[in-house]
What we know:
By secondary structure, the chain is α/β, with parallel strands linked by helices. The chain has helices spanning 33-42, 58-71, 94-100, 102-110, 123-140, 152-162, and strands at residues 5-13, 51-54, 75-77, 145-150, 180-187, 194-201. The N and C termini lie far apart (37 Å).
Amino acid sequence: xxxxxxxxxxxxxxxxxxxxxxxxxxxxxxxxESGWQQMHAALVEETGWRRIFTSPLQxxxxxxxxxxxxxxxxxxxxxxxxxxxxxDWEGRRLQDIEREESATLQQFWRDPxxxxxxxxxxxxxxxQRVLNxxxxxxxxxAGEHILVIAHGAVIRMLLGEWLQMAMTAxxxxxxxxxxxxxxxxxxxxxFEPWVxxxxxxxx
Length: 203
């Protein structure tokens, strides 16, 4: 069966950040020194991109700016690729949430479509904005090889959707710091696009 076109999408999560293990969400924090090293190491053998897309938050954007300049590639900052907003959990340590709000946290991990962090962004709204952003990128750059630098929840959402996974499996996808995934979308005349996960790696 003839493949008419292939879109290759590489997904890179930001590296470790300043401030330790906290719920960052929309909190705009910088990469740590080790985070920079992780991201450079993740891409050391990767080439072939036509352009780079990034979240506006500096833990993604600053590295993306440097990479785009080094590789001489167009850079697109996409606001809707920002991380899930965690509401009252923003900036708080994960271990404190685990201790003080354990039941809510466990329910959120198990069924994020039904449970939202206090005053946080509803998962349905997050899903819609991330998928809309991805659809616009793919439609505008079908057939290209692109790099998207984003966040753990953004990458989980995209992989889960493309692989037709239930939202209850959202937390089952490991996306570590500087985790790298490659997805290919195959287009065949008369058929729906076929998505294949080709690479998924990280520490």
